[in-house]
Amino acid sequence: EVCTKTAINSCSDCIKSGAYCGWCKQLNFTKPGEQEAARCDTQAALKERGCMEEDIISPKNVFFNLQPQEVYLKLRPGLSKTFRINFQRIEGYPVDLYYLMDLSYSMEDDLRSIKSLGNQLFEALQGITKKGRIGFGSFVDKTVLPFTNTNPEKLKKPCAEKEQFCQPAFGYRHVLSMTADKATFQKEVNKQNISGNLDSPEGTLDAIMQAAVCGDRIGWRNSSTRIIVLTTDDGFHMAGDGKLAGILEPNDEKCYLENKIYSKSSEMDYPSVGQVATQLENNNIQPIFAVTKNMEGVYRKLSEMIPKSEVGVLSEDSRNVVELIKAAYNRLSSKVTVTHDSLPDNVKVTYTPKCPNGGGSGGDTGVCDNVGVGMMVSFDVTVTAKECLDRNISFTIGPLGIKDKLKVSVSTRCECECDDPQTDAHPYCNRQGKVNCGMCSCKDTFVGQKCECSIKGKDVSSLKAACQKDNGTECEGRGDCVCGVCQCHAIPGGLAYYGTHCECENESCEKYKNQLCGGKVWNGKCICKNCVCDPEYEGPACQCKKSDEQCRSDQSVCNGRGTCQCNQCKCIEGYQRPFCKFCPACQTPCITKGKCIECLGFQTGPFSKNCSEACKSIHKFEMVDTLPPGKPCDVRDVENCRVFFTTFQLVGEDNYTTNKVCMFIHVHHTECPELPNIYGIIGGSIAGVALIGLLILLLIKGIIYMNDLKEFRRFENEKKKAKWTDVTNPLFQNATTTVANPTFTGE
To answer: 10 Å Cβ neighbour count for 263?
Structure first.
């Protein structure tokens, strides 16, 4: 038994927190500074701490048997209550059997068999019980496209032309209500004729739904085993298929039989499998699906979703239907399944079967198989309320397929019955309040664990503010604010919180080797959540003896670039352990000291005016003719002259302020490039531009010349190819008069 406490401020909170939590109402049970939540624990723990048994409040479950078919439970949250129910299968219990037949055209031979098997069907029913009755119904499908041909002639006769006996298309028809008269049943069945539709699936679920919800029309008795025997050779339409015919209204699970015909067949969609299963269970109807071999798998899947149902395989002409019904009924009646209707999420019901032949299965339902006539079956029913209920609830328990049910009403016990003194001025509360389950409930002007503080004339909010650190939680959640002062709670183990706002305690310091503030030998003390180490020790848990032996290199500690903590170097950012000697990410002196070289060696550069201040980290500076071995730094000054120098960094950072040498710098000489010939550059540029322009002009001229030459040669070639013929122009007329110049000599 465990009491898992959460936020406990009252006896009621304690009772709600766990099934095994008890509350001690004994006065003076809590110690000074101890929270009232200490009153909440298991009964054994409270007794061990000195609480008298008569002062422990721990409500138990209450069970009332109000009448043979009704019980009342008053439950403690989390505490289960188990009771037993018994069921006995008796001989000769009334049976109502409704034969629901598919009359589509493919069932023609099956209809002929049923007409001839009417007497055998009644005899089989009489063999089961002397109080048996039988009814009959038939179905095909909705009389709308694409399920049925809506041609008027086809609606009247949906069968083949050769078929003489064919009734008009219909959805579901109730033919015969429950009757014990064999002759009436045979007469009505003999009147039935085959019908037809277009597609293979039938309106099976429509028919089952109407047979289940139209109880007064079908003739179901209140105290009987109700069975629907459905015979078919095809599958079934389900919810949503009606959209193919433009039927959008969902099935509302109500009865619509008018003149024994389902009147809403063409207006309402098919029901879902879930809707059918619910109505069959609500009306205590057990279906037997008598189907052909090709449909066995489909209807076995359907049977898995419908409790208390069976599947049998018909022969080609349904000759074996009587034996099938007898076998299926025996399987149904020999299996007892106990369950309940819907429950809220915070109430759980489980079953443990006590089957006469052993075995069975429990859980959310209880099942016993192979229960014979006269056998008594028992089930232990366990009811648990997980939390307090805001209202009483009721549900029913009973075997599937049987109308008789047990009504169970449940409420919860979440309040303490402490039988407190009625006085409002109890001495325990300094006569300024009354006792409520061992705690003081103070008057309006008094506060405190025992109403010892008067707040009359004081600002309550300012008193509470005085108990809050940085406007946070009152007394850090570790104490009670009494008259503006925190009264800190005790810690299990004998210690207590302390401090102005109960912010301190000496149990949560860092540990080393599972000991507070340092190993087996105490190296420090835990004070207000921090270790205060002895002079010889250091570290967050006082785990280190003070020493710098592992931090020394070349007689220096961490090369002056870090501190020694717990005998290990803690380096400046960038430098690497173990001795803070190298800094891979730092800029090299070649980059950082170049400007100082200019001002120290040549009195130039950006630091020339404050060289001594800007370059004080350079302690020794020498101009030399030859640099020491090694790769020197190579930088350029403001005049673009190359400067070569070497650096030697010793102990310390770059900004060292003691007399120790921080850095030696040796400077070689500078190499300055000669000044360029300005006139030569300008003249050369002009000549180059002129030469390039001339070359471009010559190139253009050459391209034009080559193009003209090519065109001329093409003209010459065309001219050579031309052939001319000497003929006289028919329009030409010779001159009629010729005049010669007498002075013309021909020269």
So the answer is: 14
